[in-house]
Amino acid sequence: xxVYQDGELVLYGIVGESFWDEGFTASEVLAAxxxxxxxxxxxxxxxxxxxxxxxxxxxxxxxxxxxGKVTIQVDAIAASAATxxxxxxxxxxxxxxxxxxxxxxxxxxxxxxxxxxxxxxxxTAYANQMASIYAERSGNELDDVRSxxxxxxxxxxxxxxxxxxxxxxxxxxxKAVAAFDYRIYAHAPKSxxxxxxxxxxxxxxxxxxxxxxxxxxxxxxxxxxxxxxDQLAAELDALKANKDSAASAAMQAELATLRAEKEARTNTDxxxxxxxxxxxxxxxxxxxxxxVKVGAAKAVLSxxxxxxxxxxxxxxxxxxxxAGAGLKGNHAxxxxxxxxxxxxxARTNAS
Length: 351
Hints:
By secondary structure, the chain is of the alpha/beta class.
């Protein structure tokens, strides 16, 4: 969907991503504003279940500095990061039947204690920044805003006006809500989670469009593996109770796949984080790809010489792998490419 239509900004779908052919980015909004002209009044039609906080804040700042009057019209839903964008309006209008959701930012981290601590720092910074934006626009006390965020509040048009997060509820009927996997939110209305199931709006089932690559560190609002696993387990129990064996078997398979994928990613992250993997990143990744566990990978890597000490560089190593070097039925590998690794495996197996 084009962001700039008939002189209006139309921000439908996920903030910063493209799923189900819906979504918009900060760069697209900046281009649209340049086309519209800084001095001209602007109407922004917003219908989004959330997305990436970084893009939302960038869009908020761009709209806040626009010289013409900015009117935000919530066509159906403004949730999570989308509410940050809404706060940029000099006038915020909720169509009757539209809803707004405010909560704390979310993220998922794979790594050690230090990695998780960095994520906590990042989320705390985002939460404080979002709270200051909400407080400034609504006139509410900062502590009250933080309480709203932690509680994850879902507001009707009238409630959003009452709490100061919007200026008025318009008589025009709300449009259909934007595509989004509303199951990731703790207190989403049942009507929205049911629609996500019915429409197959699942972050697990779809990949972002190629034009909008995902930055894993920015997936602040997407469903975590644990949340998806918990959801599948709950749905599986319900299916078993209803004796739906076919659907139950399919869901068991999906749950098993999800757990296996998570285990593989965790193992890969652990191997790549090893001190022994430094200077041997390609080799470490190769070990992870074939399912070598972190303990065994550490032993192999520690017994091997570093790249600087004569093992193949990344390009050489990948070329050797692509040619099937060392596999049965192929030509023998060159001694200068694989000798160091052969010795490493020999030393490891002998220990």
